[in-house]
Amino acid sequence: MAIMAAIASSPSFFYSSPSLQNSSLSPSRFSCSASSSQPHHGGRTGFMDFPYVSGPHKDLMVDLVSTVENRLDSFLNPCSLPPDVQSYQNETGTAHAAIHLRSGVQSSLIDFMLGSWLHCELPSGGALNITSLSAYLNSSTDAPNLLVELIQSSPTSMVLILDLPPRKDLVLNPDYLKTFYEDTHLDQHRQHLEKLSEVRPYFSSSLYIRSVVSPTAILMRIETERLEEMIQTHVTPIAKDVLKTWLDVCAFGERTVGETEKAYLRKRDDMSKSKTIEIDLGSNLPRLFGQETANRVLEALREVF
Amino acid sequence: MAIMAAIASSPSFFYSSPSLQNSSLSPSRFSCSASSSQPHHGGRTGFMDFPYVSGPHKDLMVDLVSTVENRLDSFLNPCSLPPDVQSYQNETGTAHAAIHLRSGVQSSLIDFMLGSWLHCELPSGGALNITSLSAYLNSSTDAPNLLVELIQSSPTSMVLILDLPPRKDLVLNPDYLKTFYEDTHLDQHRQHLEKLSEVRPYFSSSLYIRSVVSPTAILMRIETERLEEMIQTHVTPIAKDVLKTWLDVCAFGERTVGETEKAYLRKRDDMSKSKTIEIDLGSNLPRLFGQETANRVLEALREVF
């Protein structure tokens, strides 16, 4: 799961965006262009700088990451990724990414939190910018994880993914559905966005990703000339509220989990991670950053989870 | 599950239709009106008559039901429902329904097939017409079930539900996802409909129902002045193809299921049935047909599954 939301959430876009759906058929089409049309901030740009996205987009991400780190601070180890994994780019400087990964301390419910951004110039002249924040709980609790992702492929188009992916089969566990999805009224946010004319539902082209998300998942494509205003007015308050729900009900909620169930959770979490890696990474990471960098990043992440 | 697709699929609409979403807040609003604005065909109307829907809608349902009965004929017992459950109405004659239920013979993979239609005059002057066909497999196989439902609330608006609901947790079983949903290319139909301007995604207001369906589920609202043409041109070929996939890959597919897995399937199927009954029936069936008729229908159905 870590990889999904960090590196791979980014390449996952290549598989899941309707507008880029042919990428899996024609990989070369989505290699980053060799020409650089935008200034770069070099390898030392920090994760929290979000250097390539708009003000409201950056403000939202900084707010979400800060909130998680403030609330969970005592449960999180410092980020121990090597500097060349915390920030890395391709040889031509047309693709640039940052990762921020903090594992949970042993006694906590936190497996890890993971933030990332990715910038990649497109052959068309525009750029793809993805920012994400996710947090994963360990098998001491069965509560849902957190997944936030903003995927911007043009100045007027953005895919928003905002969800608490469940960690159990909801058909077999209606009480779990009630606790985390019905009683929390999470669907009101999806319903609010659904009513806006600039917004329409987004379907990932990966059926596995569609299976991983919850029934209240916000999977939306926003298309508007006033994207920054949309982020400020609609996306930001909703994302903050979903995060608050996750913190209050999931990260700090008390759940009793027996040994059999712990084994089940580990099995399901592991399957979800490995399958997501398979779907998301494929050839995308090497394609964007070259094999050497891809290996380095992957190896560093694997050490942590 | 039987109840869901027979009686309850109908009342499920009252919970799940966006346009009627307030029904759960104001049950009396959706009692059928006492005035009859349309001729009735009496209690003897047969299931296969589909007397209240358009020609293309009826043709589609007759085609689907006939195809299932022809292919599965030797595996199905005759319908043994009492006549006053095979067709029933309310006291004022404003609500009328029919059910066709055939259980599978002992040695088969079929639990039962279930067809139904429901007609109900609306206080607004229009009518609600629901037709459905579903088929459920037993624990000798883990293959998906079949669910087809057309819910027409006005001459220009229809909700289409077309799915093979999975019987296992797809996150934990990616091979299952591949076999039944990826390799069968079921998503192409959803993608085709998604492109039509008259069609938009439909979200059931029941989060449990959203959890029950597959990632390739067609859950669409069609709004057009030319609904009959839409049914003929787009809905009919897709529904027939989905049914063909279900028959070839699920009903006649060979699956090895161990004893532990059979117990799991029974548990999940039972949970799904009982939860769906709870969601769907609630007060809807008594409200539409009166308590006495509701009890009679429910009791007859319960005897079979």
Structure characteristics:
homodimer; 305 residues; alpha+beta; oxygen-dependent coproporphyrinogen oxidase; eight-stranded antiparallel sheet; globular; disordered N terminus
What can you see in these coordinates?
Chain A has a domain at 49-75 and 90-259: oxygen-dependent coproporphyrinogen oxidase. Chain A is 42% helix and 20% strand. Chain A has helices at 2-16, 55-72, 83-86, 174-182, 187-194, 207-212, 227-251, 259-280, 284-289, 291-304; strands at 87-89, 95-103, 110-121, 127-137, 146-154, 157-163, 199-201, 218-223. Chain A has an 8-stranded antiparallel beta sheet with strand order 1-2-3-4-5-6-8-7, sandwiched between helices. In chain A, β3 and β4 (127-137) form a beta hairpin. In chain A, α2 (55-72) packs parallel to α7 (227-251). The longest helix of chain A has 25 residues, at 227-251. The termini of chain A are close together.
